[in-house]
Amino acid sequence: MPPEQRQLPRFAAEPPQEALPYGRWEERLRGEFLTGCLALESDGEDLGEPGEILWYPDRTWHGRTYVPATSITSNGNELFGYVRFIPAEEGSDPRDFWTHVDFTDQTAESNPGWKMDICDEVIGAWRGPGGAAAAMTLVWGRPLVAGGRIVTAQLDGVTVDQCQLLEERFTLIAPDDYRQELLEIKLWSAKDQELASESLYEEDQAEQ
Q: What secondary structure does DSSP assign to the chain, as a single string?
């Protein structure tokens, strides 16, 4: 095959390795996530009490595992973020836990036209030729239409990551905003039919 004309980090993260959190492991992650919620600065706004925490598939990149989560509060806001840690090695437990949490009042329940409920957060960078930088972005969410099997992240038509739905949830790690090219998240059926396509950018979503 000839050399690639465009250098891109594709499938940079490990695919999900575990089932969604449960039992004592879920309790540990829930404690970390709720601690992050308590430290969240809301500018005096009463966000409400966190409700059930939904966990999303794990992804590991640069030696760190990310387990995203969302929770709808008693006031109808959504808390979203992730717990990051260094995964266990033989004879050791996971360590160096760190949590990022943010909030929004834009929820799937208040936007019935959405086809996917998506959260995203930049977690690093990748530099290509000439110093052009891509924002390595953690993307997680759930489809709001039936029949999906797999979700892809595409940059200018090139698939740079994908994740099979796990209990109707997905997590991706993909380069974004590279040479003015922006990520699109696409939901596919078992017969490779495109069911939904969303941008990470609100103005793009409004045009669709």
A: -PPPSS----S-SBPP-SPSP-HHHHHHHHHHHHHHHHT---TT-----EEEEEE---EEETTEEEEEEEEEETTS-EEEEEEEEEPP-TT---EEEEEEEEEES--GGG-TT-SEEEEEEEEEEEE-GGG-EEEEEEEEEEESSTTEEEEEEEETTEEEEEEE-SSS-EEEEEEESBTTB-EEEEEEETT--EEEEEESSHHHHHH-
